[in-house]
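Appendix C: a fully annotated inverse folding record. The material below is reproduced so that readers can follow the format used throughout the book. The structure is listed first as tokens, followed by the designed sequence.
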């Protein structure tokens, strides 16, 4: 993929926090505000970031306009989503990424934000599967790596992983939350998966529902060109038939079925997801699966 890369942040850069999915309250993002300021960044919270309408952070129009304001504002150097939840799919059809293409800037989030990542990738801009403001307190382990990625100081990285199906593959990383990937399959927002390294993670999807989601991917011809699979965290997914102590093996088995169907390497245990680990994962940027050595390497910088 020949995507536009965002510019790195520097001291004094402006980070805007928006809520395109579920609702938040000020205490939930207080840790993020304090941390970003200690990094020397200017931080603003969108005027509608604390809006609430049941499980959404305000109406579709409110959430879309807030994200659009951040995209269109030339003074905003990075867009940080406040949380995931649900709702991003409802607004992506009406987003305009023209300003982000003209001046690519960092857009970070995970979980439900997968929908926005896919829309931005379709518009030709690389994004960051990384922290949301709400997760700064619960995912502190990877905050230093998150900061280094934002500031363009990350350099080459290698992560130890479990080999599920051996082999090597190189390609752009595309993916995110498994439920969102499946939900967006068949829409115009699914990026081309040909030659991609498909990253997947999820939370609170019971055992048989995980099976259904993985099977839906395996049966979908849009994913037949995937070059490799990277499995992240599958947290709180134990169910009536698969206990917590069996979940890692169960997910590996489902991943192996993908690898067998597509004849590609599969690795598991990448430290990104909803639990305490959420290593920043550039989307649309090339990485390497070393399925023989049990590693995922990132040699290409996320920022330009």
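Designed amino acids, in order:
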């Amino acid at each position: 993929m020949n995507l536009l890369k965002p510019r790195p942040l520097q001291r004094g850069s402006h980070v805007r926090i928006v809520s395109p999915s579920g609702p938040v309250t000020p205490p939930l993002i207080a840790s993020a505000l304090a941390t970003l300021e200690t990094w020397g960044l200017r931080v603003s919270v969108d005027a509608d970031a604390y809006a609430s309408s049941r499980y959404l952070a305000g109406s579709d129009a409110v959430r879309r306009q807030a994200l659009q304001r951040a995209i269109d504002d030339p003074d905003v150097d990075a867009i940080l989503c406040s949380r995931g939840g649900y709702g991003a799919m409802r607004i992506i059809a009406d987003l305009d990424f023209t300003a982000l293409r003209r001046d690519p800037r960092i857009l970070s989030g995970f979980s439900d934000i997968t929908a926005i990542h896919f829309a931005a990738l379709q518009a030709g801009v690389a994004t960051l599967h990384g922290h949301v403001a709400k997760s700064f307190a619960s995912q502190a382990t990877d905050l230093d790596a998150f900061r280094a990625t934002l500031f363009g100081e990350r350099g080459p990285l290698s992560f130890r992983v479990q080999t599920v199906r051996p082999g090597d593959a190189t390609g752009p990383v595309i993916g995110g939350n498994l439920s969102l990937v499946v939900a967006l399959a068949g829409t115009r927002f699914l990026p081309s998966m040909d030659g991609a390294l498909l990253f997947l993670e999820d939370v609170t999807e019971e055992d048989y529902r995980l099976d259904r989601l993985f099977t839906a991917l395996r049966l979908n011809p849009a994913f037949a060109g995937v070059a490799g699979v990277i499995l992240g965290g599958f947290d709180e997914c134990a169910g009536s038939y698969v206990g917590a102590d069996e979940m890692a093996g169960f997910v590996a088995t489902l991943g192996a079925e993908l690898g067998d169907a597509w004849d590609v390497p599969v690795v598991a245990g990448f430290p990104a997801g909803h639990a305490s680990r959420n290593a920043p994962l550039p989307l649309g940027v090339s990485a390497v699966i070393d399925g023989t050595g049990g590693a995922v390497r990132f040699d290409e910088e996320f920022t330009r």
